[in-house]
Amino acid sequence: MATPMKPEISVIITTFNAPDELWLVLVGYQMQTERNFEILIADDGSDSKTAAVIERFRQTCDIETHHVWHEDAGFRKCEILNRAIEQANSDYLLFTDGDCIPRPDFLAVHLREAEPKRFLSGTYNNLPKSFKGLITESNVRSGIVFQSKWLRENGMPQNFKSLRLIQSKALTSILNRLTTTRPTWNGCNVSGWKSDVMAVNGYDERMRYGGLDREIGLRMNNLGIRGKQIRFKAICLHVDHPRGYMNDEDLKKNLSIRNETIRGNVTRTPYGIQRDGIQRAA
């Protein structure tokens, strides 16, 4: 019996009770030019509708897809991300969200740009709320949703960010060098080596919404793992939506943890994948 091929890249997708959006994202991964990858859905306690979407996807394609789930006990994104990291079979990990639809070359770009002791910092192209319903499965499969002309005709604002959608290797390389935005660990579109993620002990499970991704990136920087800008190369689309889970108390707590990481030059959290004798909250 042949040994299964090790995936070139593990795609870790976070989600919570957004099955329609997740389906479009999974269709986007079905259309990737890179074929040797696996998907891990890091599910922060969704109901059965999300499980049904994942099973439907498994039935329609041969992409290895794992559903990593725990019960809904409030915002525990960092915990489910750490469980997905543990289960990933590739040496290289890509992190994204369950409402970020990837362009067909998305994984190919991340693999092409990967370097030792670097992580790749991308972003999403945020579309107005009016695009909800305009982005359909057929539009994702055809690729029209990534065409600037179609997006403009349907109300996408025209500004500097629109240049991300231009498919020119020469121009995107120049724009990535010229951008003043620092390369940070952005959970919607970021990739790095599993060994580096493990070295900083993954995500800090004390953190809630607001900067939790940036904090792990700060620890990587402290360890000498630097970000590389690919925001004009690795393209995914995101339709804007309310964020009812955001609150000032969590933001203040997260900021305090980030400041500790900066001041203490912290490279490894004791509240991560390995808990160093610290008990997880019940």
Name of the CATH superfamily: Spore Coat Polysaccharide Biosynthesis Protein SpsA, Chain A
The average pLDDT value, as a whole number, equals 91
CATH topology: Spore Coat Polysaccharide Biosynthesis Protein SpsA, Chain A
Strand order of the largest sheet: 3-2-1-4-8-6-9
Count of alpha/pi helices: 10
Specify the biggest β-sheet. Answer: 7 strands, mixed
The Rg value, from CA coordinates, equals 18 Å
Which CATH first-tier class would you pick?
Alpha Beta
Protein name: Glycosyltransferase family 2 protein
Domain Glycosyltransferase 2-like: 10-116
Characterization of the model:
The longest helix has 16 residues, at 248-263. This protein has helices at 19-30, 48-60, 77-87, 106-113, 137-142, 148-153, 169-178, 194-199, 212-222, 248-263, and strands spanning 9-15, 37-43, 64-69, 92-97, 100-102, 118-121, 125-127, 189-193, 226-229, 236-239. The chain has one domain (9-263): Spore Coat Polysaccharide Biosynthesis Protein SpsA, Chain A (Alpha-Beta Complex), CATH 3.90.550.10. The strands form 2 sheets. A 7-stranded mixed beta sheet has the order 3-2-1-4-8-6-9, sandwiched between helices. It has a 3-stranded mixed beta sheet with strand order 5-10-7. It is built from 10 helices and 10 strands. Helix 1 packs parallel to helix 2.
Give a brief rundown of this model.
By secondary structure, the chain is an alpha/beta fold.
Task: Give the helices and strands, then pairings.
Layout: E1 9-15, H1 19-30, E2 37-43, H2 48-60, E3 64-69, H3 77-87, E4 92-97, E5 100-102, H4 106-113, E6 118-121, E7 125-127, H5 137-142, H6 148-153, H7 169-178, E8 189-193, H8 194-199, H9 212-222, E9 226-229, E10 236-239, H10 248-263
Parallel strand pairs: 1-2, 1-4, 2-3, 6-9, 7-10
Antiparallel strand pairs: 4-8, 5-10, 6-8
Helix pairs in contact: 1-2, 9-10
